[in-house]
Write a structure and sequence with these properties.
Order of helices and strands: EEEHEHHEHEEEEEEEHEHHEHEEE
Radius of gyration: 18 Å
Structural class: alpha/beta
CATH topology: Metallo-beta-lactamase, Chain A
Strand order of the largest sheet: 8-5-4-3-2-1-16-17
Strand content: 25-35%
Number of helices: 8
Length: about 280
């Protein structure tokens, strides 16, 4: 079981795609511009999309995906693509994207009784079983400028796994949830460098300093083996890395396995409770 990083940037630029992770062959964790990295035949295998929130960089691929693979999936007799998200996120997707103005409403096409897309609401704390390999997914809290969640994905009923914060600023509830269910790898955002701390706070994002403060406040063992940073704005990567190094030292945080997430990286979703494994 692996997580393939198709996109992990906070915006678009050459060589930068927005948040898109693929679990196994049939589950997407957010659906940004990283879908452009996937061959059509593989896109047609995606049965489930987990959305963290309604911002366009995380869901722009949903309408394009369902349209692009419709004929292949119909010919193969595959079911509708299932999108799982908070009710507020699904409402935004329906009203503002799949509204027959911005894009056709594929929850009613090609026929209302046999749509290409179905919408499935969820809530923080829910546990889903998804995909051909029956992956266990727990919905995690997040604190963003719109209703948002994160996800923890496990290869089995207990132990190991990868957690993704989605877009979030400081969120004590996220850490509390992770301490009840540790993971091998935590992917968490640090979208802005410290010089943009006010903008980050207003828009519900982390900076290296705000993330380091939360890490320093953790009581007991850290609920992750490795920390991977995502959602950096293109061009800000060096500033974020320098700020993070300084913030970790300031808060006395040593021995952390921390690095920026890389587009194209594959992370093994290990059954070991806290062992991060990167695949070749």
């Amino acid at each position: 079981m692996s997580l393939h990083v198709l996109g992990c940037a906070g915006s678009l630029a050459l060589g930068h795609h927005t948040t898109t992770f693929r679990i196994d062959a049939d589950i997407l964790l957010d659906a940004g511009s990283g879908l452009a990295r996937v061959p059509l035949a593989e896109l047609a295998c995606i049965d489930h999309v987990l959305l963290t929130h309604s911002h366009i960089d995380h869901l722009l691929g949903v309408p394009l995906l369902v349209d692009g693979v419709l004929r292949l999936r119909t010919a193969a007799g595959r079911p509708p693509i299932a999108v799982h998200a908070l009710p507020q996120t699904l409402d935004a997707l329906s009203r503002h994207i799949l509204n027959d103005v911005i894009w056709p409403d594929f929850t009613r096409l090609p026929r209302p009784e046999a749509p290409a897309l179905t919408l499935h609401p969820l809530a923080v704390g829910d546990v889903l079983t998804l995909g051909s390999r029956q992956r266990r997914v727990r919905v995690l809290p997040a604190a963003h400028s719109v209703p948002a969640v994160g996800y923890a994905i496990h290869p089995q009923q207990a132990g190991g796994g990868v957690a993704f914060s989605g877009d979030t600023g400081p969120c004590p509830a996220l850490w509390a949830a992770l301490q009840r269910e540790p993971v091998a790898t935590l992917i968490i955002e640090a979208a802005f460098a410290d010089h943009d701390a006010q903008l980050a706070a207003r828009s519900g994002h982390h900076t290296p300093e705000s993330l380091a403060r939360e890490l320093a406040a953790l009581a007991g063992p850290r609920p992750f083996g490795a920390l991977r940073l995502t959602h950096a704005k293109p061009g800000e990567e060096a500033a974020i890395a320098a700020d993070l190094s300084r913030a970790l030292a300031t808060h006395g945080l040593t021995g952390l396995d921390v690095a920026p997430l890389r587009e194209g990286e594959r992370i093994a979703i290990s059954p070991h409770p806290t062992k991060h494994v990167t695949l070749p």
